[in-house]
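DNA-3-methyladenine glycosylase: structure tokens wanted.
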Amino acid sequence: MRRTWRPDFPLDLGAVIGPLRRGPGDVAFRAVEGVWLTANTPAGPGTLHITRPDAVEAEAFGAGAEWLLDGLPALLGADDDDSAFECHHPLVAETRRRRPGVRLGSTGRVWDCLLPAVLEQKVTSTEAHRSYAQLCRRFGTPAPGPATGMFVPPTPRAVLSINDWEWHRAGVDGARRRALIAAAQVAHRLEDAARLRGEAGRALLRKVPGIGVWTAAEVAQRGWGDADAVSFGDFHLAGLVGWALLGRPLDDDGMAEELSPYSPQRHRAVRYVELSGARKPRFAPRFSPRDYRAI
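Answer:
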């Protein structure tokens, strides 16, 4: 199935869809000859291929093809309204000027965003991405269509079928394992979060044991393009925001204070900081990833 869509706004495809990528080895996302991504949809698994020579050209495969094409505009930020956003810092204003095509996209689904977000809790990106890729390969389904080597992420039913040894083999510790199992047991109800949106949607996600403010925000940012969902509790984010906007480190409380003028679009401000190219200084060696498979 194919669709051509012409956005009536500037579109930075890479910036909008980039947050869906989970590391360079992501088997559910590929940036080759456009962008390929896989998804679990209400109609079943699907693969979406997006290119942009001029208009956005998309083709989709599998049972979820029609659903993915219907959701293409929202995925690329058509539902995002940034008209009320005000820049309160020169860095934010300059990035917004240089990157007019930055928008917040919405997948319209919760589970596919929740699974990798839980895996990223309190571990390095290397550990989380390795576990996610392995779970997709072993318990996901091969991507419909010509995307050889890609996989659709495991469904909630598939996650509930994973035994202890397989969790250990994928390098997933007990806390993240329990959170994923608890979420999988009520996954059909959690999809309502994308309909509720905003704080109500995030609050619904936090009812699941093991899902806190950080995880709920990570899901909200991608699932429904939540412009105010800040990832408080992130190991790096407060430091990045502090150095970028103030030239000094901040903790979460300090970041909340610094971002308060941007409410209710604090995540949008953070996104501009991330895309500005600003980096915080490094004062120590990188944290060494752990391998729970060796424990």
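Residues 128 and 149 are 19 Å apart (CA to CA). The longest strand covers residues 44-51.

Cheers.
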